[in-house]
Amino acid sequence: MGNIRQKFIKRTGKALLEKDPERFKPDFEENKKELQQMITDGSLTCPSKLVRNRLSGFMVRKVKIAKGLNIKKNSEL
After folding, report:
1. How far is 16 from 10, CA to CA, in rounded Å?
2. Rg (Cα) of the chain, in Å, rounded?
């Protein structure tokens, strides 16, 4: 089974990646810092730390897929 994410997380994550794809890296902590910076700048509103962390995790997965980095695929499991 795969990870199930809320539509809000998917929609927001995809919009942020389309807006500025080079800003996010395949590292959770770096993405978390970038999102926190966007929240403090006022360019992004985030209701909680939980949502910020979920967004950061979603970004990691999408960036790794886009760059073709090592991600386990269903066929490997």
Report:
1. 10
2. 13
pTM of the predicted model over 0.85: no
55 and 13 in contact (C-beta within 8 Å)?
yes
Q: Are 57 and 4 in contact (CB under 8 A)?
A: no
Q: What's the rounded Cα separation, in Å, for the pair 34 and 13?
A: 13
Q: How far is CA 22 from CA 1, 41, 50, in A?
A: 30, 18, 24
The one-letter code for the residue type at 1 is M
Q: Are 26 and 64 in contact (CB under 8 A)?
A: yes
pLDDT tens-digit readout, 21-43: 899 999 999 999 999 999 999 88
Q: Produce one character per residue of 30-58: b if its CB has 16 or more CB atoms within 10 Å, e if not.
A: ebbebbeebeeeeebebeeeebbebbbbb
